[in-house]
Amino acid sequence: MIERYHLPGIAVGVIEDGQVVYVRTAGETVAGSGQPITPHTLFKIASNSKAMTTALLGRLVDQGKLRWDDPVTTYLPQFRMHDPWVTANMRVADLLTHASGLPEGGGDLMLWPEPNAFTRADIIHGLAFIKPGYSFRSQYQYDNLLYVVAGEVAAAAGGAPYETLMHREVFAPLGLDRCQVGAWNRDAVGDVAAPHRRDGERNVAMPEAAAIPAITSAAAGGIRCDLTDMLSWARNWLVPTHAQLQWLSPVQREVLQAPHMLIPVSAQRRAWDHTHVMAYGYGWRMADVDGQWSVWHTGTLNGMYSMLALLPDRDSGFVFMINGDADEARTVLGEVLMKHFTAAADDRGVDWYADALAQRAKQRSPSSPAPDTSAQRPATPAELARWSGQYRDPWFGDVTLCPREGKVHFAAAKSPTLAGTVMRLGERYLVHWDDSSNLDAWLDFHAASGKQPIGLRMAKLDPEGDFSSDYEDLDFQRVGSCRP
């Protein structure tokens, strides 16, 4: 895996019959630093944080401080969705199953890219302005914002901030001594993996300050843990001790890992795993694989990939974390490790699955390919004079499109890395971000009519780009002119 995908660093652990039977770490915390990955190296576990958030909620249910069927407004009276009926009927459980009606990744621009100035209060306020993509409870569409809301429900029910509760109710009782959430210091904690991006043939570390701030997205994807603690976390689900069954009751354990919302099964999963049913629980995915039941989740953040998988009927599973671009690598490694348990006679290894993925990528033609931007040029202030100004979206807030040094500059008030130059490509305009890790976006202006001011909509240049770059959900109106 390391050689095939040129991974900067990886930590892998395997559990068989309740016991850790394999641990392997390789690579560096920062490429070129000489600092090795160890079982105690902290990684961003990203959306694997969701299962820790739901475990916290389950603890509060066991303590009688919360019920799954309680309306969200019982704990957060200010909570609003776009549809008032949905607001009134949204239960705590509905925050966890990705079936709220929010479009896939809806509102994620309030979480990423980081750093940004959006608060959890901003998210709760902004939800009322994000138009639904489908009807309530009708289908699975992955979102992150409602897990942030779930963290605030926990805080209201538990009487302490989410981060305090996570340390007190989850990390401490389970002995997850290295896991971090909230504000902490990299130098004081030590042994922390940096995320990496690929630059040609090189892995380039993405810098972080020593002082790690508390982040808005913590309940959805903001926890960091090491391999040792992640294996302890996994064994708590597979072979819980008497004390761990007191920590979280069997009833709540079953609720968290029971199917609550069906997920469509992909052709690849049917072909590779003979899967018939796939579903989402509370912070966990689940499916049959080669006739065996699996429960798992993945984690993805810019430059960090992870997976934790359980086979409850076998008291077995695995976890791995990678500090680099590893989308295909995660798919392949997850498949090979799963087959170790579900199809031991399967002799298809890393190369077979990696080759199959590469071949499918060649054969798959995107429905709307990304445009050729080689002919783009900076738009002039003169040609954009009609459209320049200050714009506002009801959930994302303010942006400006204003002249600067002979060009037109786009800047978001609360998301400083969403800043760039407005370019012209044929008859259309786009924004080319200064930070190349952000997906460039089309800018489509609409002329004023009647009492309606000039409007601006946005869309990803690459329609196949990550759903968290949800420019399509933005609807700006011009609210003022550029300031001198």
From TrEMBL:
Pfam family, one: Beta-lactamase
Biased composition (Polar residues): 364-377
InterPro entries on file: AmpC-like, Beta-lactam-related, Beta-lactam/transpept-like
Region (Disordered): 361-383
UniProt superkingdom: Bacteria
Record-annotated Beta-lactamase-related domain positions: 3-327
UniProt xrefs under PANTHER family: BETA-LACTAMASE-RELATED DOMAIN-CONTAINING PROTEIN, D-ALANYL-D-ALANINE-CARBOXYPEPTIDASE/ENDOPEPTIDASE AMPH
Name by which UniProt lists this protein: Penicillin-binding protein
Organism of provenance: Rhodanobacter thiooxydans
